[in-house]
Amino acid sequence: MNCVNESCYCRDKSPAPTIERTKVAVILANLGTPTAPTPAAVRSYLREFLSDSRVIEVPRLIWFFILRLLILPSRPKRVAKAYASIWTHESPMRETLLAQVAAVQARVSAAFPALDVQVLPAMSYGEPSLRDAMAHCHQQGIDQWVVLPLFPQYSATSTAPLYDQIARWIPQQRRLPSLQIIRDYHAHPHYIHALTESIKAHWAANGQAEKLLFSFHGIPQPYADKGDPYPEHCRATAAAVVRELGLSDEQWCVSFQSRFGLQEWVKPYTDATLKAWGEQSLASVDVICPAFSADCLETLEEIAVENREFFQQAGGGRYAYIDALNANELHIDMMQALLAPRLAAIESEQSAIPAALLSSRAT
Ligand SMILES: C=CC1=C(C)c2cc3[nH]c(cc4nc(cc5[nH]c(cc1n2)c(C)c5CCC(=O)O)C(CCC(=O)O)=C4C)c(C)c3C=C
Ligand SMILES: [Fe+2]
Ligand SMILES: [Fe+2]
Fold this sequence. Notes:
This protein is an alpha/beta fold. It has 2 domains: 23-184 and 329-352, Rossmann fold (3-Layer(aba) Sandwich); 189-322, 3-Layer(aba) Sandwich (Rossmann fold), CATH 3.40.50.1400. It is 45% helix and 15% strand. The protein has a 4-stranded parallel beta sheet, sandwiched between helices. A 4-stranded parallel beta sheet has the order 6-5-7-8, sandwiched between helices. Helix 10 (270-279) runs parallel beside helix 11. The longest helix is centred in the last third of the chain and has 23 residues, at 329-351. Residues 3, 5, 8, 10 line the site of one fe (ii) ion. InterPro entries: Ferrochelatase, Ferrochelatase_AS, Ferrochelatase_C, Ferrochelatase_N. Pfam families: Ferrochelatase (PF00762).
């Protein structure tokens, strides 16, 4: 039957407009790492990282001189040596981020064939940068972004800089994307499950130590006092894992590592805890670092090497570091579980568009 509506689209004989599958960017973002294990590359990484006022809250002018005159002339040489000791052909963090991106890409492409999803790597400091990822999305006309900061526990010192970079980019643009940022996942059941299973797998292969230490990257205590929820998130993660494992209070402990500078950081400190346990002649300890979604300098060197020495030189026995979740299957499952409801919502918005207007739905 012919349509009687004079102004209806179906009377227009021009070709039907075509709408492509919705382009979506999933941005997996981590902290950042130097481009090479050399003093020059580490200096340029530290200059960018430690110039961020989210990370260092010292008044800018004073910090400018401390950074340029005290830190950058000396620290990079020592830190570059530590990086060289863990470097493969690449920084482990960057290598793992790229593996995570490839694995998530395979998963979401399979799960959402009706969408055109590109999974992109990004880092707050260094390469591949979040700025480049945003420029790429803009050039490609990707109007739907889902950003997953790979920091399970939110902190103003780690997660917030990603928000800041996006916020600085926005005023420069005319065409803005729909934007979703997954703030944290410190108690997400898939995250807790992935951690729990990695501990159980470690125990199955190596036996269970007397104590399990959850060592999280620290932040300065004044930041926590001013409202950074990070330490609470860390304790909640550990408590949830312990609940799944059924450990008693004497079998585990939370501590904070990687102190930097002279002020007080959140306690108890990892190095002091391990030295004390060594002095008590503890027979064995397993250490896991749930704040790190990829192994990096702070786990492979500081925890697996340096703190092992602290523990054993003080009189402790067997010491094992349990790897970060990296690109393991359950970690990728977790990322997919975080992304799926967001991608499903985009897909259902797209499916609200009449099928005839979609040019190239994948089969
Ligand atoms: C005040 C200084 C720092 C704060 C606050 C801080 C918070 C913080 N950092 C991470 C994750 C990582 N940090 C890494 C290295 C690193 N961190 C600091 C300082 C602070 N971090 C420095 C100076 C360095 C560089 C190494 C050194 O000079 O000692 C890394 C490793 C990167 C790598 O290339 O392998 C990670 C990861 C989190 C999660 C966090 C707050 C919660
Ligand atoms: Fe019609
Ligand atoms: Fe750090």
